[in-house]
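Hi R.,

As promised on Friday, here is the backbone we talked about, encoded as structure tokens. Could you run it through your design pipeline when you get a chance and send me back a sequence?
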């Protein structure tokens, strides 16, 4: 038999359960609203991306080519007389002046030859004096018919022969003096001398022209540049036949990627194509007061060989090079939806690509914020903001909190801009032409 108090007790339990259920439902609703995030209707705001507005301008078609560094003047110091090297009179690796003594070859044999040549000259002059005296004595006698004309003729011939012997001895004396001078080896030009190729006590030969050292002038350098002949013709064709042949600035890029602060200038472009390689040779000259460039060094040079009447400069990080459809970039349309666009790139200018086809003036090209699109479905609208290039130190300029270069992406990481080079999209990104399903809310 049920108690009289059972009915009120059951009603109390039902009311408590109902209140608990309402509280749980309210908490779930608040959690869903918190997960939905701010914005009207609980939707995420459109992500901010950095864009630039395209415009046509006159652009120099720059090319980056390989080059070898060569000293502007080079002199091989070689032995001009044979003998034993007595001493070296210079410091290896130092700067030497023209006419400075470098090596001393044993001069004793050549000094002896010089002494013999001087004696031969004295003997020849004595013979000439005697022969000339006989001619002077015979001259009045032949006029008086006291001697035969044949005797007088022989005396004159002997005097002339003695005079020729004097000249021959004097020439031999000059040769001996030159050889004695060659025993002291001097610098033919001013410049930086390398290591000595021979040591004291070494026997050098004039017949083999033994090399003793190498002097190179490095205060100014030549750059021997090679370029494909077809590439040169293509650049000139793109410029409408308006090419730049010489006296244009040349930027030198070192092997570690740094840019030489001093620019050189193009001297000439060869008119003959190498039949074995199909390349032409260009030569430039660049100042080198601090010896930053070394002879034989491999560098790359950047120069503008033609001028394009109209082109569009696009930062390199905005372009995906060599995709299945060619070079592509993202264009933000009037509905603020980014779509891929295939473009044609003609050349490079600094950290920008020169686009000649595929874009119109006034279009908005996406430069930054690609990471934010990877977790969103294709066709998602974005909020375009003006993009500013990094400063000279490679750092992004200071901006407000809405700068796309400093906004976190979907994974919570901060997007960074590539300073130079092509942008390679992540797998499955819209820039690569793939479709990524949207992320569902909890």
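Update: got your reply. Pasting your designed sequence below so it's all in one thread:
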């Amino acid at each position: 038999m049920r108690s009289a108090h059972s009915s009120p007790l059951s009603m109390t339990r039902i009311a408590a359960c109902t209140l608990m259920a309402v509280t749980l439902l309210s908490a779930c609703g608040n959690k869903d609203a918190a997960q939905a995030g701010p914005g009207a209707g609980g939707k995420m705001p459109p992500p901010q991306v950095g864009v630039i507005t395209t415009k046509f301008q006159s652009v120099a078609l720059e090319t980056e080519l390989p080059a070898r560094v060569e000293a502007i003047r080079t002199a091989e110091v070689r032995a001009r007389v044979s003998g034993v090297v007595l001493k070296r009179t210079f410091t290896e690796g130092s700067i030497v002046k023209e006419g400075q003594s470098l090596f001393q070859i044993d001069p004793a044999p050549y000094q002896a030859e010089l002494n013999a040549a001087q004696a031969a000259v004295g003997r020849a002059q004595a013979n000439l004096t005697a022969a000339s005296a006989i001619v002077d004595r015979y001259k009045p006698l032949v006029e008086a018919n006291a001697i035969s004309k044949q005797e007088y003729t022989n005396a004159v011939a002997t005097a002339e022969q003695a005079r020729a012997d004097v000249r021959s001895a004097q020439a031999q004396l000059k040769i001996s003096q030159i050889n004695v001078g060659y025993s002291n080896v001097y610098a033919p030009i001013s410049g930086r001398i390398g290591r000595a190729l021979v040591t004291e006590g070494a026997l050098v030969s004039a017949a083999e022209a033994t090399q003793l050292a190498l002097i190179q002038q490095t205060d100014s350098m030549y750059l021997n540049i090679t370029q494909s002949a077809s590439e040169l013709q293509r650049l000139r064709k793109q410029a409408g036949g308006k090419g730049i042949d010489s006296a244009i600035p040349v930027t030198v890029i070192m092997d570690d990627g740094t840019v030489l602060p001093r620019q050189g200038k193009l001297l000439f472009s060869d008119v003959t194509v190498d039949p074995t390689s199909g390349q032409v040779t260009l030569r430039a000259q660049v100042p080198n007061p601090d010896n930053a460039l070394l002879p034989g060094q491999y560098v790359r040079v950047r120069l503008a060989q033609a001028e394009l009447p109209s082109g569009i400069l696009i930062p390199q990080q905005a372009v995906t090079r060599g995709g299945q459809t060619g070079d592509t970039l993202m264009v933000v349309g009037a509905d603020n939806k980014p779509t891929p666009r295939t473009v044609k790139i003609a050349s490079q200018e600094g950290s920008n690509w020169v686009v000649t086809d595929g874009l119109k003036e006034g279009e908005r090209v996406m430069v930054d914020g690609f990471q934010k699109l990877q977790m969103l479905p294709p066709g998602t609208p974005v909020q375009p903001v003006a993009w500013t290039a990094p400063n000279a130190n490679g750092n992004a300029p200071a901006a407000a909190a809405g700068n796309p270069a400093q906004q976190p992406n979907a994974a919570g990481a901060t997007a960074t801009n590539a300073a130079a080079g092509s942008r390679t999209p992540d797998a499955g990104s819209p820039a690569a032409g793939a479709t990524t399903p949207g992320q569902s809310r909890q």
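One thing I noticed while checking it: The chain is about 25% helix and 30% strand.

Thanks again,
M.
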